[in-house]
């Protein structure tokens, strides 16, 4: 996540990621199955708990019909910054 983003901005980004999935009519388990990962991984990405690998980003982007660049930005923006960890 970009330094200086507050919790509300992070939450908005996470909601955008979730909304993108839902706008395609996909539950976490369905997206995971189509993208080659499990629902728990989708949940962790959407909630900013893990950084998606490049391969996962590409598979999610392809499945959701967006660019890999946009998907990487959404996934990374959901992560807490290093400042949040202290």
Q: What topology does this entry show?
A:
Elements: H1 7-23, H2 28-35, H3 39-46, H4 54-64, H5 68-77, H6 82-85
State the distance separating the first and last CA atoms: 15 Å
N-to-C order of helices and strands: HHHHHH
Main sheet attributes: strand count, strand direction, barrel closure: none
The mean pLDDT is: 82
Low-pLDDT segments, ≥5 res = 82-86
Query: Could you tell me the number of beta strands?
Result: 0
Sum this structure up briefly.
The protein is mainly alpha-helical and 86 residues long.
Describe this structure in words.
The chain has 86 residues and is mostly helical. The protein has six helices and no strands. It has helices at 7-23, 28-35, 39-46, 54-64, 68-77, 82-85. It is globular, with a radius of gyration of 12 Å.
List key phrases describing it:
globular, mainly alpha, 67% helix, 86 residues, disordered C terminus
